[in-house]
Amino acid sequence: MISFLTDLFTNKVFVSAGSGWFVAQLVKVIIDSIRDGFSVKRLVGGGGMPSTHSSLVTGLFISTGIVYGVSSFEFVIAFFFAMVVMYDAMGVRLTTGKEAYILNKLRERDLAENKEPLYDKILDEKMGHTFPEIVAGVITGTICALVVCLVIL
Asked: Fewer beta carbons below 10 Å: N end or C end of the chain?
């Protein structure tokens, strides 16, 4: 068990991706706390600045390129995985958040008019990411991967 944990936490790719996620999530919580007040939900929630998803997958593919080389199949897999995740975050997940906003407004209208709402719970509107949030995540993940691979480990 000790050797497994040692191997895991000295693995440049693992630490780069994990630190990308951690740093982006920490920054997101700080930004949201300043803007809207602290929320426990934001500790693990999606959406917001910077994109944690983008930071994690960027840390993954950058560190994979450094460790295995950009001509390796590992890099190719990590790169295209990152592209799919970021595309999804800006497309499907962002649209889902916009739709949740509209449905929540309809719910508010129904409640104001003493009508039974179609859905009784408030939907999460922070689902996806805008292009600037994705770019901020890419920058965060790149910095984390470079620091981990070239400075720390």
From this structure: N
Helix, strand, or coil (residue 55): helix
Q: Are 49 and 138 in contact (CB under 8 A)?
A: no
- DSSP letters for 71-82: TSHHHHHHHHHH
Contact 37, 55 (CB under 8 A): no
- For 49-84, write each residue's pLDDT tens digit: 899 999 999 999 999 999 999 999 999 999 999 999
Nearest to 14 by CA among 46, 59, 71, 68: 59
Reading the block at residue 147, the tokens are 């620091």
